[in-house]
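Saturday, quiet lab. Running sequence design on the structure tokens for the scaffold JK sent over.
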């Protein structure tokens, strides 16, 4: 029985691909295997005629990423998670793809990642291996165990949280059952979405206090240990995949975010969507000065031979300081990832679009590190 729709048993990597996934050299990986004592299966175990090359499973790779972290081979970040909202009002621009690939890449670097699907379309949930509306009977028919079933969403958690704040004296129940681990506990965590996520918008209208800051306050309370089952401080990154519509959820995600990533389709007319996002961020900062997320624009569906691309590039010059120096090219490989219930990074570690997401991940980390240095300096100056 499987615990997600992905055919994880069929996915194995040779040394070169495993090293690429972990962003390390093959030699370093060999040394890690020696030092960690981890046993990796050999190809000739199943078929004695094949060469005895090592075959890494997805769980092996995430176990190695975690081992690297435990050995302090991963650059430490701040103790509170860095919250990222992937947002743009338009659909089909690459939000869910970016949230998923980035989440996987950061996990492979040894960071602890929580992805939160805020879209009832559940594209991110599917990319991670789940059919959101699957019932227990359907699971059994598909040879899936109960881990494959979505038993709650961020609406479950926020609904209970808002209720507990309503002054009616209700206590929050443990929410840990909502959180999924599609690639073993060493891999990223996911708060999935299903049809009931729609209830969240409704719940906001009854919320006490500032309705824009519910997620932000929830994380503060979780960090103080007041949200049973959500150990938010264990994570280095929280990544929100926002819906393509104006909603309290997206506004809340932006208000909770340190970074807002706006994927921009280079073969489209998306600059208006971007200016709307900028004014939403500015409006939030005016109303709540502690909200000051940094905007990063990621060009997607990039291609050198479309005339529209060069016009878009010119228009984006107005946002030069927010523009990622790396882009994501158009690739036929992405649309298949959802059918296979597996992010491209894990499907084809050495494919060209994967290395583009890898470069973007490195850029994002350089921004995060720079910001943390700045914060430290400002704190030191203030002291
Ligand atoms: N760089 C790309 N090139 C080609 N297709 C892409 C690319 N990025 C995403 N896609 C595909 O485009 C569709 C929409 O992407 P998605 O990430 O779901 O967008 P959004 O979340 O903004 O609606 C999906 O089928 C996805 O696989
Ligand atoms: Mg989406």
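Result came back. Writing it out in full:
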């Amino acid at each position: 029985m499987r615990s997600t729709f992905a055919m994880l048993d069929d996915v194995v990597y040779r040394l070169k691909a495993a090293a690429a996934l972990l962003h390390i050299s093959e030699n370093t990986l060999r040394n890690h295997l020696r030092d960690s004592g981890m046993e990796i299966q050999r190809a000739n175990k199943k078929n004695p005629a094949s060469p005895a090359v090592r075959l890494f499973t997805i769980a092996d790779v995430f176990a190695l990423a975690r081992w690297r972290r435990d050995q302090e081979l991963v650059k430490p970040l701040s103790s509170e998670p860095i919250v990222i909202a992937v947002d743009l009002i338009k659909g089909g621009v690459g939000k869910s793809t970016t949230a998923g690939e980035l989440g996987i890449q950061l996990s492979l670097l040894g960071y602890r990642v929580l992805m939160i699907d805020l879209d009832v379309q559940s594209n991110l949930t599917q990319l991670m291996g789940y059919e959101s509306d699957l019932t227990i009977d359907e699971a059994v028919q598909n040879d899936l165990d109960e881990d494959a079933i979505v038993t709650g969403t961020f609406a479950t958690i926020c609904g209970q949280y808002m209720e507990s704040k309503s002054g009616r004296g209700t206590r929050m129940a443990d929410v840990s059952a909502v959180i999924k681990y599609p690639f073993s506990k060493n891999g990223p965590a996911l708060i999935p979405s299903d049809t009931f996520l729609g209830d969240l918008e409704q719940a906001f209208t009854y919320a006490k206090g500032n309705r824009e800051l519910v997620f932000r306050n929830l994380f503060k309370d979780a960090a103080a240990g007041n949200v049973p089952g959500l150990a938010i401080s264990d994570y280095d990154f929280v990544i929100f995949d926002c819906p393509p519509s104006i909603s309290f959820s997206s506004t809340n995600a932006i208000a909770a975010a340190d970074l807002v990533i706006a994927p921009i389709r280079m073969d489209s007319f998306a600059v208006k969507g971007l200016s709307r996002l900028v004014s939403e961020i500015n409006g939030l900062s005016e109303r709540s000065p502690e909200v000051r997320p940094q905007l990063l624009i990621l060009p997607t569906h990039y291609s050198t031979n479309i005339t529209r691309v060069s016009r878009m590039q010119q228009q984006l010059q107005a946002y030069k300081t927010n523009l990622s120096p790396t882009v994501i090219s158009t690739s036929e490989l992405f649309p298949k990832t959802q059918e296979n219930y597996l992010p491209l990074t894990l499907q084809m570690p050495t494919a060209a679009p994967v290395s583009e997401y890898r470069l973007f991940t490195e850029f994002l980390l350089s921004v995060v590190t720079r910001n943390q240095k700045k914060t430290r300096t400002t704190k030191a100056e203030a002291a």
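Notes for JK: Residues 79-382 form a domain with the Rossmann fold fold (CATH 3.40.50.300). Residues 91-97, 123, 244, 300-301, 328, 330-331, 334-335, 337-338 surround adenosine-5'-diphosphate (ligand 1) (CB under 6 Å). Ask whether to fix the surface positions before the next round.
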